[in-house]
Amino acid sequence: MVLFAPNAQATLSGSSDWYGAMIVGTLVDSGGTRIHYDRSLPGLWSTKSIAIPQASPEAVFVNQTTTVTITAQVGADPGLLPSSVQVLQLNAQSQSVAILGNLYDDGTHGDVLPGDGTFTGQFSFSPTSAGTIYLQVVASYSGTPISVLSQPIDFEYFVQPSDADIQAFQQVPISGENYYRSALAQGMTPAQARSATVSYVLQQPGVQAAGTSSDGTSIWIQFTSGLDGVILTNPAGTEGGGLGAPAKGGVIPHLSLGRLCSGFFQMGGAIKYPDNGTAIVAAPFADRFVPDVSDMIANDLSKVCGAGNIQPILNSAVNVNLMKTLNQYATIHINTHGGVDRKGADTAYASACAVGCSLCPALGSKRQ
Fold first, then answer.
1. What single-letter DSSP state applies at residue 38?
2. Cα-atom radius of gyration of the chain, to the nearest Å?
3. Strand 118-125 vs strand 131-139: parallel, antiparallel, or unpaired?
4. Is residue 343 one of the residues assigned to a domain?
5. Percent of the chain whose predicted confidence (pLDDT) is above 90
6. Which of 81, 112, 239, 331 could disulfide-pair with 289, CB 3.0 to 4.6 Å?
7. Is 106 in the same domain as 245?
8. DSSP at 14
9. Domain count across the chain
10. What is the rounded distance in angstroms from the CA atom of residue 274 to the CA atom of residue 279?
């Protein structure tokens, strides 16, 4: 027997035997029931599976209509019912609240290659307030009553930042780092200097909250605009370290194009973004950073904003000859330092991020 009730509670009472399998939200056993697992089930699930779905872009702006492409690799099984592959919308408790629509593997609805097992769909979102949307892909197979569910994914609804928001986002981490360095020069210990810097940052315009990150060194910043920033105070010899050297322009704050990009956007009149997706990721110190996350940054850029397949250029391959070619790219990411944000995610930062003929505030990638 198979029981499929993923959002319900199942209660087993009395000293009895259960033969089969069950998928339930909560299992309560009040009488010592013996559950006999059907060992033939693993063979069924070997091809009945769904990889973690991908959404591009991974965020949309409030009061704008954005088309999001959702893809999912569905296991090749002769019993798969293609018309059953759908996107579910979940609530914060991972309960299904709506069916957004179907995914396709026939070359339509954004699908690139028919019959390759990658199902694709395009959905329009027009949020009116900031928040998070949770999604999951489901598929059914003939001969079994159990539908297969992917792991849930989520993406954000953002309020588009104003020029004043961007200015605070750029300036507060830089002034905060300078304050931290000054505190060290006055004889404070690193811990004392971080505490004093957090207090300083909390007094700055546009800052909603701040604190020490889970790595014990970075200082996270949450802005009233919803953007996140980080001040790096890492020890020398680590990614983001080298604080013993004089400051050379300060910290470039974090802005993830992977979460805030829809074909590369333009925020206000003062910030310009490229109109094409050519990009390069360079990691001149990859062997010195443990771990180096340049491949994750390249992967993010490959999936968003039309950048295509990008492979990071590492170590000594980042040389003068490479620098001479940078004018060919719309987006340039040079990975030189990093830290941990307020959510505990490792974040890599570019020390240079050229966008067309102007500089963007930053380009970053979170490692969840």
1. -
2. 24
3. unpaired
4. yes
5. 26
6. 239
7. no
8. S
9. 3
10. 10
Cα dihedral 93, 95, 99, 104 sign: positive
Distance, in Å, from the CA atom of 52 to the CA atom of 49, rounded to the nearest integer, reads: 10
Long-range contacts of 3-11 (CB under 8 A, 24+ apart): 4/145, 4/146, 4/147, 6/149, 7/95, 7/96
Around 257, how many Cα atoms within 13 Å sit in the side-chain half-sphere? Answer: 32
pLDDT band at 334 (very low <50, low <70, confident <90, very high): confident
> How many other C-beta atoms lie within 10 A of the C-beta of residue 219?
28
CA distances 205 to 20, 164, 229, 264, 316, Å, are: 60, 10, 14, 27, 42
Nearest to 69 by CA among 100, 115, 97: 100
Does residue 46 form part of some domain? no
The residue segments making up the domain with residue 28 are: 2-39
Return the residue matching tokens 């954000």: 156
Q: Do 172 and 99 reside in the same domain of the chain?
A: no
- Same domain as 323, residue 216: yes
Residues 244 and 340 in one domain: yes
Quick: pLDDT tens for 233-244: 866 555 544 333
Q: What is the mean pLDDT of residues 264-283?
A: 55
Average pLDDT of the chain? 74
Packing angle, helices 163-185 and 190-202, rounded to 10 = 150
**Distances in whole angstroms, Cα of residue 62 to Cα of each of 29, 65, 164, 201, 365:** 46, 8, 18, 27, 22
Q: Which structure tokens are listed for 326?
A: 């940078």
What local confidence, expressed as pLDDT, does residue 215 receive? 72
Residue 342 or 72, more confident: 72
**φ, ψ for residue 359 (rounded to 5)?**
-95, 135
Copy the structure tokens of residue 1: 């027997």
- Determine, yes or no, domain membership for 44: no
Residue 45 domain-assigned (yes or no) = no
Query: What's the CATH code of the domain at 129?
Result: 2.60.40
pLDDT tier at 264, thresholds 50, 70, 90: very low
**241 and 94 share a domain?**
no
